[in-house]
Structure prediction request, 145 residues.
Amino acid sequence: MSLDGTYDDGNIFAKILRGEAPAARVFEDDHVFAFMDVFPQARGHTLVIPKHSQARNLLDEEPAVLTQVILGVQRVARAVRAALKPDGLVVTQFNGATAGQTVYHLHFHIIPRWEGVELGRHAAGGMADPTELKALAAEIAAQIA
Ligand code: 5GP
Prediction:
């Protein structure tokens, strides 16, 4: 999948937004939905996506929507920090398959990092236990300000 293309509303994040696929929800408002990554690169790996958007990537997104999304990313990242007390936080976003993108609905990754703990591989790790993800989502949700 290149940088160009049309939005496919059969993508997994669109299904999550429509309630057709499960997700460990952390937070949502009128603009964004945040949930746990099911193949986490680190404990607490969280995704933030626009709710009303057909942007496949950053380049496609309307500036007004993007503003709301990045504000959501900051809000959720602060909650991840408060809940899990990482030493650092990586925020990533991939555009096009060559860049590492695997799901074509705009999203930002929030990945906590701890000293001495290696980062897992992007979209290549094992699936997390849904019960654990739900518990982590609740811990982070409790810290949303
Ligand atoms: P990308 O590779 O497009 O930047 O990120 C897509 C992310 O979505 C990956 O980190 C991958 O682990 C995650 N992912 C893929 N399928 C699912 C799913 O069904 N549920 C959730 N919660 N995350 C998913």
